[in-house]
Amino acid sequence: MFAKSYVLERTKNNGGNVKVDFDTDVSKVQVKLHRTTIISLDRNTRKATLRTDGWRTVITKRAINRFFELVGSDTRLVQKHFAWFVTDSEGSRPFEEGMEIPIAHYKMFW
To answer: Residue 104 carries which DSSP code?
Structure first.
């Protein structure tokens, strides 16, 4: 059960929201697009788990990238020839559902 919820971004075209949910001790954060948790961040281990639940859309990619921008990470989700890739200072690798991304340093945006 998450104690607090904040709207990270409102989408105009479809009326959906990107929300950030915090658990009661604020160590676990979930970023949701509509009803799908697209990012689960464990602030103790500093790892973000990425998910799309099959919704590999421009809106999902934009919401994930917006999260990385807000926490000050150089990680980005990009698309090339219909395939998704995660890029950062270490290079580029194919996106996999449920993959974990280390977040070494992050800014507090909440």
So the answer is: S
